[in-house]
Amino acid sequence: MVDANTNPIQTRIALSGRAHLAGTYVRGTAAPDFAVLWVHGFGSHRGGEKSEAVQQECARRGWAFAAFDFRGHGESSGTMADLSPALLLEDLAAIRIWLATRGHTRLGLVGSSMGGFASAWFAKDNRKAVVGCAFVAPGFGFLDRRWNALTEAERAEWARTGRMRFRNEWLDIELGYDLVAAREQYAPFALLTGWRTPALLFHGLADDVVPHTDSLYFIENVGYAHVELRLFKDGDHRLAVYKHEIATAAGTFFANLL
C-alpha cells in the first residue's frame, strides 16, 4: 500500500492578479516541521534529474519535499520578461508561507544555478526559516554576468526599450530590464555581508555557464565558518552525472543540522 504522506501531489499556489505557482509536494513522515525545497535554474522547471534525485533522498529519510516553478517558468503563470530578483524572492516567500501552513516552518533549500542565487538571497533575509542551503553550480554573479556580457550600446538599448532578446541553445526569449536594474543591490559581495546560514556548495571545474570561481569567491570571502565547497574535476554546469552523490551529500548535510 502506498503511504499518502510519501505520494507526490501536484499543487498550485494562488498569487495576486490571477497569477499562480505550479508545484510538486510530498508531505513526508519524519521531522514534520522540516521540508526540503528544490529551487530550479534560469529557463528550467521544477522537474528534472537532480530534482528527482533530491526527492528520492527525502523519501528515503521521510522528509517533506517541495519543488515549484518560478513565474515565467514551467507550468507557473507569467513570462520570463517579468523576471527580476524581487519576483524570485516574492515567489519563494509565497512558497515559504504555503509550506508553513502545512507545518513546515524549517526549510532546507537546494538551489541550482539561478535557483542558487535566489535561494542565497532568500536565506539571508529569512535566517529563522532556513536551516541550511545546498547550492548546485550557484549563479551568485548571475546578474553581473548577464550585464557585463553586453556592449554599452546594448545596455543602453535594453534600458531604453525595457526588453532584450536572449538566445542560447535552449532558449529564445525576451528579458525585461527589471532583471538587471537592481543588480548592484544583489552583487556577490553584498551577499557575503552578514551571511549566517550553513551552506554546502557543489560546482564543476568544466562548467562553461557559471564558472566555479563564483563558488570559490563565496567560500573564500564569506566570514561565516559553516560553509563547504565540493568541486568535481570533470563536472559541467548541469552536474547530472553526480545527481545521486549531490542528493546524498545534501541529505547528510541537512540531517546534521536538524
Question: Could you characterize the architecture of this molecule?
Answer:
This protein has a single domain, classed as Rossmann fold, CATH 3.40.50.1820. It has 9 helices and 10 strands. The strands form 2 sheets. It has an 8-stranded mixed sheet, with helices on both faces. The protein has a two-stranded antiparallel sheet with strand order 7-8. Helix 1 crosses helix 9 and helix 2 packs across helix 3. The protein has 258 residues and is of the alpha/beta class.
Average pLDDT for all residues: 95
Please work out how many helical segments DSSP would assign.
9
How much of the residues is beta strand, in percent? 15-25%
Return the structural class.
alpha/beta
CA radius of gyration is 18 Å
What is the H level of CATH, i.e. the homologous superfamily? Alpha/Beta hydrolase fold, catalytic domain
Major sheet characteristics? 8 strands, mixed
Second-tier CATH architecture = 3-Layer(aba) Sandwich
At the fold tier of CATH, the topology name is Rossmann fold
- SSE pattern: EEEHEHEHEHHEEHHEHEH
Poorly predicted runs are none
Tally of DSSP β-strands: 10
